[in-house]
């Protein structure tokens, strides 16, 4: 416990935790702090931050409150990040665990399959999936999830292969444990912690991808997202650069927080560190 | 000889992967709502059911799916990547026309990212624990979290709009008809911001990797031997440790080839750079799926090619890989 506390109290870890908690608070609090639809025009357009009372981050070209957009955008970002990372973790762990557990021909086939998905440029692939299925939030989540699992699969395969060779697995086999129980109850729980550590980095990547998609106009037209705000602000880049700058800062801080959190998780899970 | 045999083996391994990529691409095309006949009919305004049936028969759309797949595969093998009905040109022609511009953006970005990343990461590792290491690490963390298209926009605000040092976008100055060296200079000026925006994230990635890799290389026994021999610090760190620390970075360059293409789509859109990424963006806007999927396919083939080259380089850099 002391070790974990020491790891968590380092400045990097504190900054990471603070940023992630802030992101969560913004996403959860958005409907209370800004109860109105962030897509509504609420003030005169193109007001600089602080120019008028009540609009501390200014308004965009359509007179929408940027602060409200940033808060509601956090919801979309977090939702996409969590769900897409969840899909990638499930898919990747399933494919990787089966490949590592069975080995042999199954392993070769599954790894070739993984390689196919790894070969297609992830962002372009995501674009293609969203373009084909249509830009709804569900499709965006599905597209990001389905294109970001190969790295998880490779990691899971390696971990499962290593755990599979341990003595307690042989012991379980001798006790007559069926293969499914062997994989789910004995091997996977012991291989899971490095996989879980990747979750926060996966989330960060998913959020960046979502922002890229919505910047290109491939996002749910009924929802505010940081990427679409940056895309909208681009129209006024010469005169009102803050419109693109503000949501970008929010996104960068959120991604930074998740990356730092990933480092912390990595340290905490590795008993040799910080001892 | 061993290197060549290795290369041949890798090429054979790439065949099923390529087949899989083609299959996924075909699946996406099938999943799209409406088929080619709908698109053509939509373009002409109206069509009778008889005309639609005739169109479907002409393009083989009334055949079973596996026949269509075999047809698609046959077309690809003969270099026919489909036809962009929106632009009225074969997809391959469009792609080949734009490919040089994208390469002109990506190759310098890779070299800049790998070069600066290795120098910064190596430097941080040599001074591990000092303020310099801390400064580089913080810079790396920030660059690693910054969305590259946003970095590009902000670079435009600072360097093109406020300071007016560099052009806002495009590939050359439309108002001046430069030739020869002046033209090259003009293109180079237009390249600076997009190349740097694209390289930023990858430089951070390589710096992070190089620092870790260099730290472990510096602890090896042969480094102590080299120091004991009285070699200069530069010889020890850059030549002995550096060469071995390079390998993970090289692997990463190959692994990141696909991601770099994705980055190029965004950066080209931001800077109106007339490359493949911009073509992909236009294809999305026009809902030109044939073209979009053609670009996905060509990029996937590029990734396979890049990894093949990286494998060869790996063999050259590390004799142990050759033996294996």
Automatic annotation (TrEMBL), chain A:
Transmembrane segments: 78-103, 123-147, 194-218, 239-261
Name this polypeptide is given: ABC transporter permease
InterPro entries: BP-dependent_transpt_permease, MetI-like, MetI-like_sf
Native source organism of the sequence: Teichococcus deserti
Recorded GO CC terms: plasma membrane
Domain ABC transmembrane type-1 residue range list: 74-262
Classification via SUPFAM superfamilies: MetI-like
Bilayer topology annotation: Multi-pass membrane protein
An annotated GO BP: protein transport
Cellular localisation: Cell membrane
Main location: membrane
Alphabetic keyword roster: Cell membrane, Membrane, Peptide transport, Protein transport, Transmembrane, Transmembrane helix, Transport
Pfam families recorded: BPD_transp_1 (PF00528)
Automatic annotation (TrEMBL), chain B:
Entry-linked Pfam families: BPD_transp_1 (PF00528), BPD_transp_1_N (PF19300)
Subcellular location: Cell membrane
Main location: membrane
Domain ABC transmembrane type-1: start-end pairs: 99-314
GO biological process: transmembrane transport
Family membership noted in the UniProt record: Belongs to the binding-protein-dependent transport system permease family.
Name assigned to this protein: ABC transporter permease
Membrane-crossing segments per the record: 12-32, 99-123, 135-161, 191-209, 245-271, 291-314
Coiled coil regions, renumbered to chain: none
SUPFAM superfamilies to which the protein is assigned, alphabetical: MetI-like
Superkingdom field: Bacteria
Keywords for this protein: Cell membrane, Membrane, Transmembrane, Transmembrane helix, Transport
Signal peptide boundaries: none
Topology in membrane: Multi-pass membrane protein
One CC-aspect GO term: plasma membrane
InterPro entries: BPD_transp_1_N (IPR045621), MetI-like (IPR000515), MetI-like_sf (IPR035906)
